[in-house]
Description:
Elements: H1 2-8, H2 17-37, H3 46-63, H4 67-73, H5 75-94, H6 104-110, H7 115-136
Helix pairs in contact: 3-4, 4-7
Amino acid sequence: RVDFTEYLDVHYVPGTGEILIFCSALIGGGLGFLWYNAPPAAVFMGDTGSLALGGALGAIAVATKHEIVWAIIGGLFVVEALSVIIQVLYFKRTGKRVFLMAPIHHHFEKKGWAEPQIVIRFWIIALILAMIGMATLKVR
């Protein structure tokens, strides 16, 4: 609603009210999944779920016309994907590897970092990127 966006001093995008319901369903499904995915995990998402989730987030970004903001917020996923692309291209050209293993979180595992250490550091990076992304909404 326009009055809420004026009150909150955020950019109004017409026709995105329906997306709120979709986002709420994604959040609810994600929370339900995380409940059973907490260590020791009883349920694993797999490629089908993660690709569908990524596609849904991409569709939301396009529908709300905030593609750059979503790329900033999801910067950690961008880095993970780029690490694989760089590893494959570099290996095909030189026969050598840039990382010990790709994606990059496996590189850190191979360097001896504990899984909780990697997860917490990735959480911190994701939180910082989310704050930067949210701050860019005010730049318009």
